């Protein structure tokens, strides 16, 4: 899952990025409203962590701009203000959640997981496809009660497919969810991850289907 962190406090941004990356998220950083607006013109994110007080272009302007364009990406406001009025105002502008500083990283991660569940339409933290199960709280994949041993990139690919099970996931969109602008994933590397995953989820009833010219789809295939 790829997140955009918009925070002008570089020390706090670096700390949050390190912790969230350790939890398996891909993080793109923006240190000003201008940087965030530029990134949002060309990049797609699964969720945005947005500070309100930013240089030049503030967080509310970014939020208004997103919603005016019917961009429904989940937005979690991170603000130094715990005032009820500020919270209500930002939620009314289209924010999905609000977290006042200082906060505990465990609460932040729980709120991110909740945002991602709502965005995917899967409110149950346990997602299943055949005998393949994903616990979005523990971030553990299992098949027939055995935990799967996945590399970070394999995990990211399978999570993206699992959250959209039964739907086509575009190759470019899938590759984009694995890296920031400073990284790159070649089509060949993505194919290798898919090949490895097919072997690891074998006998789970779930199957990764290649749709030529479109992308991949995780589907449950019943055997008779």
Describe this structure in words.
The chain is an alpha/beta fold. The protein folds into two domains: about 120 residues, 3-Layer(aba) Sandwich (Rossmann fold), CATH 3.40.50.2300; about 100 residues, Arc Repressor Mutant, subunit A, CATH 1.10.10. It is about 40% helix and about 25% strand. It has a five-stranded parallel beta sheet with strand order 2-1-3-4-5, sandwiched between helices. β6 and β7 form a beta hairpin. The longest helix is centred in the middle third of the chain and has 16 residues. It is globular, with a radius of gyration of 18 Å. It starts with a strand and ends with a strand. InterPro entries: CheY-like_superfamily, OmpR/PhoB-type_DNA-bd, Sig_transdc_resp-reg_receiver, WalR-like, WH-like_DNA-bd_sf. One of its GO terms (biological process) is regulation of DNA-templated transcription.
**CATH topology category name of the largest domain:** Rossmann fold
The assigned CATH architecture of the largest domain is 3-Layer(aba) Sandwich
Distance between the termini: 35 Å
Proportion in helices: 40-55%
Strand order of the largest sheet: 2-1-3-4-5
Overall pLDDT, averaged? 90
Domain OmpR/PhoB-type: 124-220
Modified residues (4-aspartylphosphate): 51
Domain Response regulatory: 2-116
InterPro entries: CheY-like_superfamily (IPR011006), OmpR/PhoB-type_DNA-bd (IPR001867), Sig_transdc_resp-reg_receiver (IPR001789), WalR-like (IPR039420), WH-like_DNA-bd_sf (IPR036388)
